[in-house]
Amino acid sequence: MTESIPQALIVLAHPEPRSFNAQLAATATDALEAIGYEVVCSDLYGQGFDPVEAPRHYTSRSDENWFRPQTEQRYASDTQTLPPDVESEIKRLRSADLVIFQYPLWWYGPPAMLKGWFDRVFVYGELYRSKIRYDTGVFRGKRALLSVTAGAPAATYELNGRNGDMDIVLWPVHFTLHYVGFSVLPPFVTFSVQGGISYTEESEMLAELEKSKAQFRDYLTRITDAKSVEPIRFNGWDDWDTEGRLRPGAEGHSPFVRKAAAR
Amino acid sequence: MTESIPQALIVLAHPEPRSFNAQLAATATDALEAIGYEVVCSDLYGQGFDPVEAPRHYTSRSDENWFRPQTEQRYASDTQTLPPDVESEIKRLRSADLVIFQYPLWWYGPPAMLKGWFDRVFVYGELYRSKIRYDTGVFRGKRALLSVTAGAPAATYELNGRNGDMDIVLWPVHFTLHYVGFSVLPPFVTFSVQGGISYTEESEMLAELEKSKAQFRDYLTRITDAKSVEPIRFNGWDDWDTEGRLRPGAEGHSPFVRKAAAR
């Protein structure tokens, strides 16, 4: 058996090439290369990725008169006519053992640039079908993690915090990754990053950036040790009844159910 | 005192002009006009709205060398150089007494087209500042509501459901609206809308559509009666301590805190 080189994909969504986020993506590249990964970066702004799911991406259509996104995604998958930019991202995902999403939290979610990457790249038929989802998803065995910057301080992202619990705020993207089968590692979150607004001195921001870089480097170094960084738990097919509700007695792993139970 | 005609804005985000979503937007227009509203629709796909926050939108910059979105938004607001497409949406928001967002739930959030509308149109400096947020927000006194279609059945969107509690799934957008001061009315959610995939017959989908239209019409007719449709409760400045956590004794209104307390 030949040992293959592990592959990582970093998906970066920030408009400024020198931003806090871009620098954390560069840090991740260095840290992963240092532990033997080959790293590819999908710099969505740099690539000029088009995040808008729309008819213009489909050269051949299942129904010319009524654009149903999922129907056309599946048709494009079946007929091997996926949009080239989507196909290229899917190829990167299929090659990756680890995927890192690096983005700022804007209005409690990913920037449109990344939201639309999910809308367009997670193609129905190609990356999920009715029985190929969750723990039977196409990317099972692969790992993913979010590295997110938030403008507000950590206290505001607690369960009782003004901005709401960070695990719950990140849940839509975490669950999307679980949906296509990824093992999702705990997120790396940097708080109080406001692109300069909140810093009285530029040097203060640079010091924070260096601190975050060091912490991120340390975190990524530890992910090779499965015992030191365990994936987030999700429910899977065995836990749900035919209606899609948790079976009686099944333990709920979504953050709201878990945190409700803990109180 | 002259009685002025109430104004409504419908923000529609779906790529197909004849979609379930587009038809619900048309239904809302009819229903609101029938009760005396003047209605304007921002059909984001129809307008070709660009949802990507990026340097290209800013003709004059606070910092030419480092693009910080919030910094440039505030500078554009201060210098009255907002991008024309953003300015036009803000003008519509300022005129509206009621704003309806009509969109399909894609990956547990709004399509990129609508996510980016929030990223770009909810301009720092113009629509919020440190002390002008939440219950002191610029749009206080105005009402907003989400009308959302979801592909999966209602049971999967319960607290113990596979897709997670709908109130929690919608919370990022609800809280964004509260952030700029809107009173947020309970959402109108249509489940099991899959753009044709799940229907064995086209007639089945059309019957569902007619049912949803009638329910939406009924709901919108009732919103003129404040007692029949009360806004969702949110916490405000008085509830939080200086760190941004709920004060001891303050009742938490976010859906996760509320549902955790109810168990």
Question: Topology of this protein?
Answer:
The structure is a homodimer of 263-residue chains.
Chain A: E1 7-12, H1 20-34, E2 38-43, H2 44-47, H3 69-78, H4 84-95, E3 98-104, H5 112-121, E4 143-149, H6 166-179, E5 183-184, E6 188-190, H7 202-222, H8 255-262
Parallel strand pairs in A: 1-2, 1-3, 3-4, 4-5, 4-6
Helix pairs in contact in A: 1-7
Would you give an account of this structure?
The structure is a homodimer of 263-residue chains. Helix content of chain A is 36%, strand content 12%. The longest helix of chain A is centred in the last third of the chain and has 21 residues, at 202-222. Chain A is globular, with a radius of gyration of 19 Å. In chain A, strands 1, 2, 3, 4, 5 and 6 form a six-stranded parallel beta sheet that branches. Chain A has eight helices and six strands, in the order βαβαααβαβαββαα. Chain A is an alpha/beta fold and 263 residues long. Chains A and B meet through helix 3, helix 5, helix 6 and helix 8 of A and helix 3, helix 5, helix 6 and helix 8 of B.
How much of the residues of chain A is beta strand, in percent?
Answer: 5-15%
Radius of gyration of chain A, Cα only, in angstroms? 19 Å
Task: Give the biggest beta sheet of chain A.
Answer: 6 strands, parallel
Helix content of chain A: 25-40%
Span between N and C termini of chain A? 50 Å
Tell me the structural class of chain A.
alpha/beta
Number of distinct beta strands of chain A: 6
Low-confidence stretches of chain A: none
Q: What sort of overall outline of chain A do the alpha carbons produce when their principal axes are compared?
A: globular
Summed up, the helix count of chain A is 8
Helices and strands of chain A, in order, run as EHEHHHEHEHEEHH
Oligomeric state, counting identical vs distinct chains: homodimer
